[in-house]
Amino acid sequence: MFKYVLVALFVSGCMINDCEVADIRCDGNVLQVCGSENEWLNTMDCGSIEPANLNWTCCLKQETCVPKGECK
Amino acid sequence: MTYTELTPQMTKDFWDYMSDLYGTKIVSKKDSNFMKVVGSFLSLMRIQDKEKFMSKYTTTIGKTIYVSFDIGETTDKNVLASQISTCVHEHQHVVQYNRGGFDFTLEYVFQHDQRAKLEAEAYSTNIEIYHWYTGKLLDTKVLATKLLDYGCDANDVLVAEKIMNANVKVIKYGGIIHEASKKAIAWLDKNAGTLKKG
């Protein structure tokens, strides 16, 4: 039983610390950066950038938001 | 095209506009006993040195902005431009406060990683305004390093730089990310569109 508790704690620990500091990812159209406490931080909602008619989208390749069609 | 210069009155008008828009109260930091107490507290929490806090930094708590300078009381264009930039930076903190309420305050004071993120966002408004005024960009490494004065660690600085670099790329594409910058640039385009830049 104790062994299972240890495994559960290890797994939950891994789920909390799920990123390396300063890693970047796109979560939908939101750019996230991994903070110093190894947690994903929402840093930029691409959909709220102006001018809106450029249809900004999250682009992992460029590690930022770019106008639609510019994620190369 | 006839260019105009950035004037003390324009700077005061800008502060009035932002203050009215966000319902903020502007207070002189040096006259505030409350700020002296806050300075001691931040020093105790190892967030910021008290003397630097009082003389070098403008501080926003809730919707009150404690300024460390006299708004528009100079003819130095660079200082006036800096005061406009500070105004936008501090109002971005008000945007954060409006978004997160008391949680924002707790996160800012007690969580250094969140503080780094929130300051990276506010410093990015400085980049947006500087870009509007000069067409150039600020050094994100220099800005991120300032966070060491806010009780942030080396990893926080790294994260803040990464956030600001992402923002800079958007600014290069002509984008405006932050709420306070959007309002500020709309006002500046309307009221200072003929300003001689830089």
Concise overview:
By secondary structure, chain A is of the alpha+beta class. Chain A is built from 1 helix and 5 strands; from the N terminus they run H-E-E-E-E-E.
Question: Explain this structure to me?
Answer:
- The complex is a heterodimer of chains A (about 70) and B (about 200).
- With about 70 residues, chain A is an alpha+beta fold.
- Chain A has one domain (about 1-65).
- Chain A is about 20% helix and about 30% strand.
- Chain A is built from 1 helix and 5 strands; from the N terminus they run H-E-E-E-E-E.
- In chain A, the strands form 2 sheets. In chain A, strands 1-2-3 form a 3-stranded antiparallel sheet, with no helix packed on it.
- The longest helix of chain A has 15 residues, at about 1-15.
- Chain A starts with a helix and ends in a 6-residue tail after the last strand.
- In chain A, about 25% of the residues are buried.
- Chain B has about 200 residues and is mainly alpha-helical.
- Chain B has a domain at about 10-20 and about 70-190.
- Chain B has a 3-stranded mixed sheet, with helices on one face.
- The longest helix of chain B is centred in the middle third of the chain and has 34 residues, at about 75-110.
- Chain B is globular, with a radius of gyration of 16 Å.
- The mean pLDDT of chain B is about 95.
- Classes of the chains: A alpha+beta (about 70), B mainly alpha (about 200).
- At the A-B interface, strand 2, strand 3 and strand 5 of A face helix 5 and helix 7 of B.
